[in-house]
Amino acid sequence: MAQSAVPSAQQSRPAPVRVPVREVVPWAVLAAVLGLVLIYFVGAEQGATSLFGGDWVHEFTHDGRHLLGFPCH
């Protein structure tokens, strides 16, 4: 006999996986802070907002700055 494409009531479905929010929130906050720091260094670390003297941060992030559309020249 051919098998039906529609599952019958007798077949069991796997239980959905529960994601514990209390375990995910600290990692999400850490990822957001790291992302903001990265965007700062790529997009704003030069000129009047510079935290570090010299051009080494600018030169290190130069290609990423152009890739993300930030002006630098």
TrEMBL record:
Q: Which residues cross the membrane?
A: 24-42
Q: Which domain of life is it from?
A: Bacteria
Q: Which controlled-vocabulary keywords does the entry list?
A: Membrane, Transmembrane, Transmembrane helix
> Does this UniProt record's set of keywords contain Membrane?
yes
Which InterPro entries does the UniProt record give? CbtB_put (IPR012667)
Protein known as: Cobalt transporter subunit CbtB
Name its species: Actinomadura namibiensis
